[in-house]
Design brief:
By secondary structure, this protein is α+β, with helices and mostly antiparallel strands. The protein has one helix spanning 2-31; strands at 36-44, 55-58, 61-64, 70-76, 83-89, 102-105, 117-119, 125-129, 135-140, 150-154. It has 2 domains: 1-33; 35-154, Cupredoxins -  blue copper proteins (Immunoglobulin-like), CATH 2.60.40.420. Bound molecules: copper (II) ion.
Length: 155
């Protein structure tokens, strides 16, 4: 009985501690509300072995506000394929990178191209940028040899 009581007290303490941590987390997130955070899954769907198959992102469209820092956590759903380079481009061919995209955590692009980022299986690549113009932009793997992907809308 004493053991059970101790277990109960310990469990309750843990729950309270967890609540405090979670509430603290929420508070911190509210303080950092100027950061627009998104998780982006790059899903490479091979159709009949064609490497030029479509890649999609989930969600397919990300909508952000101009002038506010954007932070995107990128992962790939494909267990084998590393994507590099990925660009956010004003054109769907990926040739016009915008917003000075930086990789702040995870694998860096090995292409050396400005604005390029890399997504590897089993790793999280965090990119940051501040959109300085409105419009529709393309999150593209075109230079990696397969076609479109996601859209970024800046309002
Ligand atoms: Cu790719």
């Amino acid at each position: 009985m004493l053991k059970f009581k101790r277990f109960l007290v310990t469990s309750l303490s843990l729950v309270m501690l967890l609540s405090l941590v979670l509430l603290g987390g929420v508070g911190a997130a509210q303080q950092a509300s100027d950061v627009q955070e998104f998780a982006l899954i790059h899903d490479f769907t091979v159709s009949a072995g064609d490497f030029k198959a479509n890649t999609v992102t989930l969600p397919e469209t990300v909508t952000v506000e101009q002038g506010k820092l954007v932070s995107i956590f990128n992962v790939t759903a494909d267990p084998d394929t590393t994507h590099d380079p990925i660009f956010i481009s004003s054109t769907s061919d990926g040739m016009n990178p915008v917003f000075d995209v930086r990789t702040v955590s995870g694998p860096q692009s090995q292409t050396g191209l400005p604005g390029a980022f890399r997504v590897e299986p089993g790793k999280v690549t965090i990119i940051e940028f501040t959109p300085d113009q409105t419009g529709t932009f393309f999150i593209t793997h075109v230079l990696h040899g397969h076609s479109i992907v996601g859209k970024l809308i800046v309002k």
